[in-house]
Amino acid sequence: MIIQKQKAYENIEEMLAPYQKVFVAGCTECATACKTGGEDEVAEMKERLEAAGKTVTGTAIFDSACLRGEVREVSREHQEQIEAADAILTLFCGAGVQTVGNYHEDTPVVPGVDALFVGETIRAGKYTEQCQACGDCLLDVTGGICPLTRCAKALLNGPCGGYTEDGKCEVDPDTDCAWLLIFERLKTRGQLDKIRETQAAKDHSDHHPPQTYKWARPKKKKVKPTA
Ligand code: SF4
Ligand code: SF4
């Protein structure tokens, strides 16, 4: 999930200062889970903007704001409301903001949210970073714990030797040393031999922004009609 937080309202207000009429959009996915742009937050933002004297021409919740087809379909349903707006205020991550902006090229799209990281939801309101989308996953040899993300030095071969007596990271005493966690996890799984494998430095030469990915669609099997 893309962990995100809503920008301070004052910041949103500042970005919206040039626009009187605003359309507010949310997303049913990460934005709903992180409470930045689900139904409640969109309704609350509408109320707040109206109280501040803005005209909210309409609201919509995309079922994945980063899906081009979904943005197209929902935008068509709300065409008049969007055309009546001076700007669209989006309450979801930057991937969605850009998807909406790519469809509505003529309308300013204002980002109301800061995307933080790819993470796990421990419970509503508490999240931890888990993955940096490095493009070359090694979780099979690290017991399912990502050293690139969870070790402060992103060591692929650890630990560094700086962890404290109570197993915390020397860089951040509030965080468990990722490599000790990896050790314990591998031990639990009876896979300690894996920690002796030396991991080569990652080759990032082919992993740079902007990235694209396209999978080959599996061919549909022709089903012969039965008599
Ligand atoms: S190694 Fe870590 S950063 Fe790379 S894909 Fe796996 S979990 Fe993500
Ligand atoms: S103490 Fe552990 S988590 Fe911290 S930098 Fe060293 S190996 Fe990484």
Q: What structural class results from the helix and strand content?
A: alpha/beta
The largest beta-sheet arranges its strands as 3-2-4-5
Order of secondary-structure elements? EHEHHEHHEHEEEHH
CATH fold descriptor of the largest domain = Rossmann fold
Distance between the termini: 48 Å
Give the bound compounds. Answer: iron/sulfur cluster
Overall tally of domains: 2
Largest sheet: 4 strands, parallel
Task: Report low-confidence residues grouped into runs of 5 or more.
Answer: none
What proportion of the residues form beta strands (DSSP E)?
A: 15-25%
Average of pLDDT? 95
The proportion of residues forming helix, as a percent range, comes to 25-40%
The top-level CATH class of the largest domain is: Alpha Beta
Principal-axes shape call: globular
CATH homologous superfamily assignment of the largest domain: Response regulator
Tell me the CATH architecture of the largest domain.
3-Layer(aba) Sandwich
Number of helices: 8
How many β-strands, per DSSP?
7
- Rg (C-alpha, Å): 23 Å
